[in-house]
Design brief:
It holds the Pfam family UTRA. By secondary structure, the protein is an alpha+beta fold. The protein has helices at 3-12, 24-37, 50-57, 61-74, 104-110, 129-135, 179-185, 204-210, and strands spanning 77-80, 84-87, 94-97, 115-125, 143-152, 155-165, 192-201, 217-226, 232-241, 245-248. The radius of gyration is 23 Å and the shape is elongated. It starts with a helix and ends in a 9-residue tail after the last strand.
């Protein structure tokens, strides 16, 4: 919904109707909440500034500011420093098992969601010393370094930075589809992995890509995946939105207890 349509919708909701009770800021907050619940204001939509909205609706600026603050407190709106006020990009939380190795694409499809990837950068070059050690490569063996934004139903959920030896892929493999599908097609399907999870906060650049506020919580997942013959096929560092994922594991009491 653009600015003109928003102003028209809010004006049609009778904010100044004398039959209504309650302060104007409450009426404005209720009208905005209605637009969000009806799907007319989508997550991530930018709202007019306080002054602009106040002038358009012939309200006091304090009225708009108080309505915005109420909606931020409830989580319906969010303020992004230097950018303005937006409809909250909160997402439905998902549980992800720590014991099952699957690709992002396969996991989203199993939930009935449409997976997608947007390439942030793609390069074929030599590995860093750390990557050479982790992947068991010589310093002159080329790797594909692929940074992608992972989305589900158009919503950004994770930034994935993968490093894969070219010998397992081929120079033109790896892109908008599933990296695991590409590895499987080449006969190099990962069968096991070691993952490390760390709670972090997002830097301004990563937060902007994921459409959340700078400093928002995230989960950093470092994964080293192996083939059946124990060769390392992938090293990935991914930042998952902290408001979207719960990682769960089933624990069993050992025989020695």
């Amino acid at each position: 919904m653009d600015r003109t349509s928003l102003i028209a919708e809010l004006s049609s909701r009778g904010l100044r109707d004398e039959a209504l009770t309650g302060p104007l800021y409450k009426r404005l907050a209720q009208a905005l909440t209605g637009l969000i619940q009806e799907g007319l204001l989508k997550p991530g939509t930018a709202l007019p500034g306080e002054r602009d909205l106040a002038e358009a609706l012939k309200l006091g600026r304090v009225t708009v500011r108080t309505a915005y603050r109420d909606l931020m407190a409830s989580g319906a709106l969010e303020s992004r420093h230097g950018s303005g006020t937006f409809v909250s990009s909160r997402v439905e939380r998902m549980e992800q098992s720590l014991w099952r190795l699957s690709s992002f694409s396969a996991d989203m499809r199993s939930r009935g969601r449409l997976p997608a990837a947007r390439i942030l950068s793609r390069a074929v070059n030599t590995p860093s010393p750390e990557e050479s050690f982790l992947l068991g490569l010589g310093g002159d063996e080329p790797v594909l370094r692929l940074d992608r934004l992972r989305l589900a139903d158009g919503l950004p959920l994770a930034i994935e930075r993968a490093v894969v030896p070219i010998k397992f892929l081929g120079d033109d493999a790896g892109g908008e589809g599933s990296l695991y599908d590409a590895l499987t097609a080449s006969g190099h399907r990962p069968v096991r992995a070691l993952q490390r999870l760390t709670a972090v906060t997002l830097d301004p650049s990563s937060a902007a890509i994921l459409n959340v506020t700078s400093g928002a919580p995230a989960l950093l997942i470092e994964r080293v995946s192996r083939l059946e013959d124990q060769r390392v096929v992938e090293y990935t560092r991914s930042h998952y939105r902290g408001d979207a994922y719960d990682f769960v594991a089933e624990l069993r009491i050992g025989d020695d207890l």
